[in-house]
Design goal:
heterodimer; A: alpha+beta; Glutaredoxin; Glutathione S-transferase Yfyf (Class Pi), Chain A, domain 2; 4 strands; B: mainly beta; 6-stranded antiparallel sheet; 4-stranded antiparallel sheet; elongated; binds FE2/S2 (inorganic) cluster
């Protein structure tokens, strides 16, 4: 499986993270997203007419939406979130919610880091609305003794939402106001096989302190 | 009047091994809980290069700065400087500690040396904290109050409620909410969401 990848992209990281948690090996092709804008070039458009990253290629299959890639990678595992109608519908709800996170918190980050044109006040406001919605949901999950967005274990719903939330401060939106969201991000970062990206670090305390030399 | 004790969240939101950002009248704080459960609040500033300690991490009974890894014990004293592993750090290198205590499931901070007078919320249990984009709760007789207590009809039940208000920068207010035993916490949480929508619309509760 080949992932057309860019290290600073939250959507690409989403797929790298899912693969790492599942123990699936990906081959990476680095796309010069910034400053090269390679994803908007003719060669890349031949692969993905939308000109977006990531792209996942497995034989004849070409996937261009990161949430679809999560489904493809996690199919047949507990990461799908369970097979009841309720669980599957809830997972789909969070996958759609992840797109809202990308359009709000994700766009604020692209504006601040890569100078994308955006109504920054509006996208930050939308991002805060998303975080509040997530916080309210996770508060109720915690009352029920759970921490994941759906069900009793981590699922593609959590992985779909995690990168944009964790990178919110890069777009000028603080996570200080959302204690349950913060504890949820810690739960994700505690998963076996978790990997980092610039701006998202692992929980350093999970490894013993390096010995004095 | 500047109040000494300022609520900074709920104990349930700061489990062992976690550090979070807090504030005392505009002064940024790092509030953390050690593995054994000890809580501490310090000025949010590393003695080395001033990095926010709330960006650091807790390991055992210590808080480490994320930048160059200086390690502070619960007393605030710096016990280890990774770049100089053989050096015992001078005792003058210590985080600036605030007084910090927990009562009725609420975390309170005050300047070091502040004694007593932690507000009482006995009989109430913590529900959740949320931030309102409004400076305080402006309602007749309530303006400027720090703790609101009373009974409210929520989802057909009379619920004893305590709202502890914490003024934040930029005209925002954190509301740390508690309710009486037997209160339906999910219903209270949803009521609080509704309260926030009303307050942000400028409609008094
Ligand atoms: S700034 Fe904290 S260790 Fe250097």
């Amino acid at each position: 499986m080949i992932l057309y990848d860019y290290v600073l992209s939250a959507s690409c990281y989403k797929v790298r993270l899912m693969a790492a948690l599942l123990g699936v090996r990906l081959d990476h092709v680095a796309v010069d997203f910034h400053p090269g804008r390679e994803h908007r070039g003719l060669a890349f458009r031949a692969l993905n007419p939308a000109g977006t990253i990531p792209v996942l290629v497995d034989g004849d299959l070409v996937l261009t939406e990161s949430t679809a890639m999560l489904v493809y990678l996690a199919h047949g595992t507990a990461w799908m979130g369970g097979d009841t109608a309720v669980a599957q519908a809830q997972v789909q709800g969070w996958l759609a919610f992840a797109a809202r996170l990308g359009a709000s918190l994700g766009m604020a980050r692209l504006h601040d880091m890569l100078l994308y044109a955006a109504d920054i006040a509006a996208v930050r406001r939308d991002g805060v609305a998303c975080l509040r919605q997530m916080e309210a949901h996770l508060v109720e999950r915690r009352f029920a003794g759970a921490i994941w967005l759906v069900g009793d274990g981590p699922s593609i719903a959590d992985i779909a939402c995690f990168p944009s939330v964790m990178l919110a401060p890069d777009g000028g939106v603080s996570l200080d106001d959302y204690p349950s969201v913060r504890l949820w991000t810690r739960a994700v970062r505690s998963l076996a096989g978790f990997i980092e990206m610039p701006g998202i670090h692992r929980l350093h305390e999970l490894k013993p302190a390096p010995e004095a030399v | 009047m500047t109040r000494a004790w300022v609520a900074n969240g709920l104990s349930r939101d700061l489990p062992a091994g976690v550090v979070m950002h807090g504030a005392w009248h505009g002064q940024d704080l790092a509030i953390w809980r050690s593995a054994s459960g000890q809580i501490a609040a310090w000025k949010d500033r590393c003695q080395h290069r001033g990095m926010r300690l709330s960006h650091g991490f807790v390991r055992g009974e210590t808080l480490s700065c994320i930048y160059h890894g200086w390690v502070y014990g619960t007393s605030g004293a710096c016990g280890r400087i990774p770049a100089h592993p053989g050096l015992v750090p001078p005792s003058a290198i210590r985080a600036e500690a605030f007084a910090c205590c927990e009562k009725d499931g609420v975390i309170w901070v005050a300047p070091a040396g502040t004694e007593g007078d932690v507000p009482d919320l006995a009989g109430l249990h913590p529900v959740r904290s949320l931030t309102v984009e409004a400076a305080g709760i402006e309602a007749p007789g309530l303006t400027g109050m720090e703790i609101l207590q009373g009974s409210v009809m929520i989802a057909g039940q009379t619920v004893a409620l305590g709202l502890v208000l914490q003024s934040l920068a930029a005209g925002r207010t954190a509301v740390h909410a508690l309710c009486g035993g037997g209160g339906d916490v999910v219903a209270v949480s949803r009521w609080l969401e509704d309260l926030r929508r009303r307050l942000e619309r400028g409609v008094a509760a």
